[in-house]
Design brief:
globular, about 120 residues, single chain, alpha+beta, OB fold (Dihydrolipoamide Acetyltransferase, E2P)
Length: about 120
């Protein structure tokens, strides 16, 4: 019985630490919300978050999107973000990496998709 309790506690602590590390959005400046509208250069459709690359003001920006399952549940698919598709991304710049944004929402083909 004691071994099960210890194992359960270790698992719980590990899962909590992993979730906390993954969902830390403290490295984005929520006071500096801005918008980028540009064609998709490249997409990385992978977990835990998809990313698109956009060329904006002579720089390539990496836009961090929501988890794939959330986007699919809201009607956004990988095919909608093909290279060349113009999107609008609204979000916050990274405080650690130049030209990185965490998107709050994106607009594709006139439709708004919430990332949170």
């Amino acid at each position: 019985m004691r071994a099960k309790l210890v194992t359960s506690l270790v698992f719980l602590i590990g899962a909590t630490a992993a979730a906390s590390a993954h969902h830390g959005w403290g490295s984005y400046d929520s006071a500096k919300k801005f918008t980028i509208e540009a064609p998709v250069e490249m997409i990385a459709w992978q977990n835990p978050h998809a990313h698109v690359m956009l060329k904006y003001q002579d720089a390539t920006w990496e836009i961090t999107l929501a988890p794939i399952s959330r986007m699919q549940n809201r009607g956004l698919s990988e095919e909608m973000l093909k290279a060349g598709t113009v999107i609008t991304a609204e979000g916050y710049p990274s405080t650690r990496r130049e030209h990185e944004m965490r998107a709050e929402r994106i607009t594709v083909g006139g439709k708004v998709f919430e990332m949170r």
